[in-house]
Structure of Thioesterase:
Amino acid sequence: MATKHEQILRYIESVPVGTHISVRGIARKLAVSEGTAYRAIKEAELRGLVSAMDRIGTVRIERKRKANIERLTFAEVVNIVEGTVLGGRDGLHKTLQKFIIGAMQLDAIVRYIEPGSLMIVGNREQVQRLSLEHGAAVLITGGFEASPEVQRLADERALPLISCAYDTFTTASLINRAIYDRLIKKDILFVEDIVTRAPLAVLTRDKTVRDYFLLVEETGHSRIPVVDAHGRPVGIVTARDVADAKPDDPIEQHMSRHVVTASLKTTVASAAHRMVWEGVELLPVVENRKLIGVISRQDVMRALQMMSRQPQVAETLRDQVLQGFSEVRNEDRSFSLIGEVTPQMTNNLGTLAIGPLTTLMEACAILCLQRSRSIEMVVENFTLYFLKPVSVDSKIEVRARTLNSGRRFAKVEVEVFDGSDQAAKALVTVQTWER
């Protein structure tokens, strides 16, 4: 039987896109407490089923597919620009296809307006009306209001009419930044992208060791999750756990009760770190505390290898820091990154900031290990000694040398040189595993 939490989520998923969702309304409709309704609505927001907006409330939206994650809804635009909705509230769930800046003559603007687009304009009422008539939503910059006629047209067409206090350039930059962040997020692999959902090999508490061996023989997996009557993981059984057990022993007597799990929104990199740290080969994936799938270490490694070969759609801050640095392999088998400190890498005093410095040192340490062995890795510990400031426009060398490298761990010494002066030094410890 589904819990109240699950019933609320199913109800939210069943209502039409654009429906307003409220804690009080859900509590009254499904006869649950407001606390239960609130927690379920927050879960629905994490799943991308609803969007919460200041002064508007929570609205049912269409769940974005991974391929279209760079698209924004007009409801999200309202939050991004800290705007006020003047009209067309029924269209807030719609997806923004593109945005246009209304800085042209009327006859030229018409050529660019398309249904689903967003016209960013000031207090030019003719442009506002023309955009709505051609199926585009309108975002009025500068804090201006709209006439009653324009508001009525927005309500009739169910096209959002939004006002914000920012100027046109700032508004366009905020929306463009949000889309850019979505592009970066699209490149990040999550557990939901690689999880194996069905059929799942699981045992219940009432099963025996004999059932475990039959399941191992049938599936080829030696690490089996144990679930309760509600499908929630309560333990893990491995071949080592039952090595000395009798065939008729209850599986509950031998299972490990320390269950390491991941959610669908856990990043693959985080899952990999957890698997290495805990020394597990299989990681159960849960949603609402129920087991819905598993990922293996092989799944994680294949995913990370695939992503390492893909071209990046959008640059992260790490990419920008490393952009101007060239890789050099030294004769003493150390590895160096050589480049110039740009203004973007400095703090308010004009010297190299801690963030870019540690990014460079970490990247150099990982590259040093990867050039000597084909391994995947995650940084476990980073101990930094900052010796002297490095000013903007300085040409620096970041040099990494492997101190020792084993099957599970490696240690790398990293030094930063500003000319002949040593500016910083670090000891980096990473967890490794063979591809």
